[in-house]
Design a protein that fits this description.
Four copies of one chain form a homotetramer. By secondary structure, chain A is α+β, with helices and mostly antiparallel strands. Chain A folds into three domains: 163 residues, Butyryl-CoA Dehydrogenase, subunit A, domain 3; 137 residues, Aminopeptidase, CATH 3.40.630.180; 138 residues, Aminopeptidase (3-Layer(aba) Sandwich), CATH 3.40.630.150. Chain A has 23 helices and nine strands. A five-stranded mixed β-sheet of chain A has the order 1-2-3-4-5. The first copy, chain A, has a two-stranded antiparallel sheet with strand order 6-7. Chain A has a two-stranded antiparallel ribbon with strand order 8-9. In chain A, strand 4, helix 14 and strand 5 form a beta-alpha-beta unit. In chain A, helix 4 crosses helix 9 and helix 7 crosses helix 9. Chains in contact: A-B, A-D, B-C, C-D.
């Protein structure tokens, strides 16, 4: 959406034809009814008569008129159709119109504010809340009445999120959309579904598209991720059938997995995969991806992991351990300033990690640094690493840091190849969480504790002979 | 729930253990975490330690603490279990607790109110709305995270509606519940389903229980209502599977049906029913019932009728007419003062309607009176008759008034046996609605117009010889 | 298929308009095609042109003509429609036509028979089997190609079974139908489904209609049979959706139930029913009913009981015992001749079983007699009692005989009120069955063994004072 | 399965332990019961005690013993498990055992044969059919009682078909399997299902594997075949869920499509595909593939095409034409001997079809030749081309021969690139079929008629200058 395009909505038509008070709203409704009287059903209006952007705005206004009350579903359906065909500049114009209008009525709101300030009781607070509620939310709720309305609103928020930086005036619209979507996508309305090779291809397609951690390289790779020693679960919402909101990929393994490569390898046949599943004592959550940009800021991951743990405990009672294998996205950036110069030099070599000696020399100091990074807390904000913050906030424990757990280019660039296990232990999950919330206490294993306690001194020495090699 | 029972919540425990500000809330969370630390999972706490009413309140508080964010689903599940087992007085106590606490924080709200009054812009209005939103709604949203949470909240509101008169303090809780449920039961989330003899018995059971217009006298009667020349549709919500929200019963007939008796008769065999369906040119909506008291005030009927019209047009393209056969619940009360004395006397005889002469004498004046009643408007409120107000507000037309259309005791007592057809005509529905909203213009057929235009004079005379007969 | 075969169907109605040989069949097919040429599709032919019975016969013949091979589904559909509208005499005519025609070709069959007699090898036997297969079975298989064809064939067999006595010529048709249906309703194609209050009413309806052991007195009674402490399972076939083939009713109880009355009582509320189910250690199979007369002689009961035992063991691992509570339909008839005169006299009194003294006097001798009856074997045929024969043949053990277990009129009339438990014990079921098959050995409990061992002497004496009382 | 492998079944164990008469069968049953008595359930038998091949044979025998009647499902399940783990030589041994045993009882069969020869009536024929029915079919029916039994039998037949040439003794087993499967996979039991992008990936996988006409090159190609302007339908059987039996691919186009390339091109976006579907007047059936080798010889294609035509007429009433675009697999082989020498030479050049002049010279003579090929009839066998025979036998009309309709290597090698349209015209389908069955009359369009009527003379001349170019 280019810069010049936004000129359009700044023309008079962008000025709220539609007024702010309910009384004016009624007037619009009158206007509408007269159109309706002349033209019969709206769909019959010749498109030439009215600009489609204007038409969208009039329909949005009609939605909260008396007409919207009686024929809301029909108006919503028509608005949906009009919006679908709108070009980007007109869409932006429509969003601005929504963002700038549909305020609460000024008079009653001021009165309620004064009443509350005079006597701040539960009653005056309740009346103030009522007077303050933006009419816009009701407009959005009524837009939802169209078939496919929820999907449209989610798509709308996705687009608005992309426009926000250049168009901060859309902020109130985004806030209202997020508030509504958070209420509608409440955990109580989500369905957990297992995703496997019997899932419709249209859903699997989306897994390939949305996978955000370890890219899925086509259908054969996908098939491996859904094999007998794997599990995949997602949350779905009844109004978005066939659209995963979030999904998690799980590997059934023996012992705590420390390396991504083994998990993603396509090495085993069906029988071996089944045998592995039967023998597994550990479930590794190795990838979790949000799918809907339009639901950004509405959190599902915590619920998903915990419910999947419950599901797996029922299906596979032999499982002893539930853990992630997670990236450390912020480590390199954080660590660079803290590295010795020789370390830095060593790490600059293209394939440093394939040189056994270099790798051995770097292992201990980097592991220790990583432990320090993962347990460091930014004042008032918690752990610096976002992935750590997520899992620790869920009540997981920092269990193990894996040297060269992910030697993909991205893994090396983000974290010098390190991967981390966060352990979800039902028995301690609540206490971990509480301690974390209280004062950012970070639950950690003895092994991590050991790394932190290691003396830093020997670091330099280990690199004694390295410089000459490069 | 008797009067003496409400003593309980007035004891100290009803006083908000729980404080109003978020800071205090955090303290509660601390308290909780220490309990959790000692006792492990909550379910493990000995029930003797803590009163279940108190437990429910603590859990509700925990829901919006940090703990609720991490383990919300688990806390919600536990709260659900505790509430299920609570006795009525403690339940009332819990409701009062919800109603009286979880206010917005006073300080920020006052500041936002002052800011808005100083400078009433979109921005200050948005911040005021945010500051004013009752925390209680978030508590309710988190209660919804429990499996079966939505059903619990709907049941809760049903109970609260019954308590409101004696406990007006519950009003804010009811308002928040209604606001949330209206958003969640948005038309966009409802599923229209046909209900027939292949529907699970558990759903059909509810039809028998909820039918509010023409009682269903058991399963054989129900079977008649679902026969080949009948249709029944209901709205369902994904979170309440198996629970109709509202349903409508339709008869497929030839010509406009004026009498309930024929519609409810169980006279025809399967083949005849199929033949009637094939020959029908008219769909009569003869009963529409809301099922969920907990959703009172959230309107589904308008949407349901219109979508069923669309469904039937697709299934049975030969249908020419869509009409209700509706009661006139307020007619008798309204009419009595307007009757001639001889009329009144005649109508007091037990079986006046079976006496052909009496009936003939009353027919014209009562039909005219009924037409006057149905087209009369209470200033600022619209039609006096609630059923008329509903259908006319939907855009239907007052089509025909049927003499002795319902001679059941209830029909006679409410409306001297009269029944009314409201016609849903796609071509005029919007215009009718707009005119109605504008100035209570009531769309009516020529036939009704004729009744209104009739001279009143002959009324008395027709009754000339009647008095002597009694 | 030789010419002389057309001798067989020589009676008038059997006179083949339609010829018996394949060559003639082809000719008919020609005839048909010319009709088709003139009249377009068959459905367009005026009904007046041809008698519907004749039409049905021609279509059946067409099914195995070349035409049937290409347009079999269309011809089958048309035949289905014609048969549906046929009157009973014409239907009988059609059945006779099927029964008397569609023989194997005589020449090849005779040749194959001779070849086998000359050299009885696997090869000649196979060729003889092929030559002998009645063309009729192929006709029936092709009739099945119509939508609803399987249901039609089942209904057809039901009607034919009712006609067999008066029309023994239908025997070959019945035999072919049974052979086909037994193959199609093979256990491998049946689906076990739980039936409960969430089952479509149309299926539940059939339970009421088909229950053959303890009549279901309407929907309220049915609801009791599907309550939380009950289970009901049925077999269904994919081609007859919504039609149970057989169903079994199970009560979850504590200890072995001996009386029908307690099982059928509608005394408990939902909570109590759930509590009973949770506490139950025994599953009582108290009713098993075949639903489809048209599948008579094709056995499902054995499979059903055993699979339901497996299902219940999974759902309710606490169950210790699986037993029937079964009637003894043949006991009275068998016992009468063996009763003492005083016993006979006592049993003739209308309510003898309510007289404690009489009942006490009769109990021991009748229990012993019943044990003798149930363990008696008709030479070459096994147990005299059909219910005993069924369960013992399945491998169950005769566990207990219950005095006054069923005091309904039918129970008294059949078995002097006695009911029997047959125990299905996984550990012994195969051995019991094998012993039964080998030499009619009847597995029985020590308790039953004790009854059999009782001395008969005291019988007379117990009745010392009874005669005078009557 | 190599030659040395078949050694195994020739050892004594292959000799029927199991005897041929029912009396002997009973003895085996005895044997079994004694094993059962000692070892409890069969699964408990130590595997070492008995060779798995022998075990399979004993279980098959047990299936038709008394034991099979009572515990058939359990025995079938065990046999299934044993067979699954059997190695190929032992499997062959098992097949031979099935093929060579389970004959009808010799004595009764001979008697029935004699009775029939003495007096060939319907009655003696029926009794002979009964006596001749191979017990083996009952064994196979009982094997079907295991969960997954049907799939196992289909797989078994597939393997046997591959063994038949080297082991003709398996013929009777194959015949019985085919007979049973044909009865079980009767059209009346098949479900037509649309296959699209919402179909489970596990089913789509099979499309890629089974496509026999135009190879599907992975998932992206598959997606094209299921796009908005395509349709795909398959038949499924309830006992093989997720396994298509046959599927057909259809393209929605405007006008009769003559070239495969256009149909398979992945050129259009979603919107264009939808637009094409909306504008289409013709459905082209461009690929039809059988999926189950084990069902070879059981015909589904005729039914599938006709039902898909019906489905499409309902979904897309604007369709005017239903036609195939089919290969001509036998043309090259047939044509070679009939070509002029210059033609032959021209066709030997690698890319002759890309040379406009050569192609132009060859077009007319080859089209005429192809028309002659497709309308030529092998005496007593019908059309030489198998694809032509299939569609003409279904009642389709030979509509058009397309020059260079398929220039893939296979298309060129089989038919010099020619493709044919067979038109399925509801109005003439039956008459076409009848005429074809009667005397191989081949329905053809005027265009094809024109090709046939063309004078052959100019052929040579057109090639006048060609020889010099090569």
């Amino acid at each position: 959406m280019g810069e010049h395009q936004i000129a359009a909505p700044q023309k008079p038509e962008a000025k709220p034809v539609f007024a702010r008070s309910w009384m004016e709203r009624l007037r619009v409704s009158r206007f509408w009814s007269s159109i309706a009287d002349r033209g019969g059903r709206f769909a019959a209006l010749p498109a030439a008569n009215i600009d489609p952007g204007e038409r969208a705005r009039l329909l949005a206004a009609a939605l909260i008129s008396g007409r919207g009350e009686a024929s809301g579903a029909a108006v919503a359906r028509e608005l949906h159709a009009v919006l679908t065909a709108l070009d980007p500049p007109r869409r932006l114009g429509f969003y601005r119109y929504l963002a700038e209008n549909f305020q609460p009525d000024a008079e009653p709101l001021a009165a309620a504010a004064r009443a509350y300030l005079t006597e701040p009781t539960a009653g005056t607070a309740a009346r103030l809340a009522e007077a303050a509620e933006p009419v816009r939310q009701e407009v959005l709720r009524r837009m939802n009445m169209s078939p496919g309305g929820t999907a449209m609103l989610v798509a709308m928020r996705k687009e608005i999120l992309g426009l926000l930086r250049d168009h901060p005036a859309l902020q109130p619209l985004d806030a209202d959309l997020k508030h509504l979507l958070a209420s509608w996508f409440n955990r109580g309305f989500l369905e957990l579904r297992r995703i496997d090779w019997n899932t419709p291809a249209a859903v699997l397609d989306k897994l390939i598209a949305y996978e955000a951690v370890h890219e899925i390289a086509g259908w054969d790779d996908l098939r491996r991720r859904l094999a007998a020693d794997r599990r995949c679960f997602g949350f779905f919402h009844p109004a978005l059938p066939g659209e995963p909101l979030i999904f998690v990929e799980v590997a059934l393994v023996t012992g705590l997995a420390g390396s991504v490569k083994a998990l993603l390898a396509r090495d085993a046949g069906d029988d071996e995969q089944r045998a592995r599943a039967a023998a597994a004592d550990t479930a590794i959550f190795y990838s979790i991806s949000n799918c809907q940009d339009g639901l950004r800021g509405i959190s599902f991951g915590n619920f998903l992991i915990k419910q999947v743990v419950e599901e797996l405990r029922i299906e596979l009672p032999q499982l002893q351990r539930f853990s992630t294998l997670s990236p450390v996205p912020g480590f390199c950036a954080w660590a660079r300033a803290r590295l010795e110069e020789t370390e830095r030099a060593a790490l600059e070599r293209p394939d440093w990690w394939e040189d056994a000696q270099v790798s051995a020399a770097l292992q201990a100091p980097l592991l220790k640094l990583c432990a320090e990074y993962l347990t460091s807390v930014v004042k008032g904000k918690g752990p610096a690493d976002p992935v750590a913050k997520f899992h620790l906030g869920n009540g997981a424990r920092l269990e193990r840091i894996n040297w060269l757990g992910n030697v993909s280019p991205r893994g090396l660039a983000e974290s010098f190849g390190m991967m981390v296990n966060y352990l979800y232990d039902i028995a301690t999950i609540e206490a971990n969480h509480e301690a974390f919330v209280r004062d950012w206490t970070i639950a950690r294993s003895d092994e991590v504790e050991g790394l932190l306690a290691e003396a830093p001194a020997p670091r330099r020495r280990r690199f004694g002979g390295l410089a000459s090699r490069s």
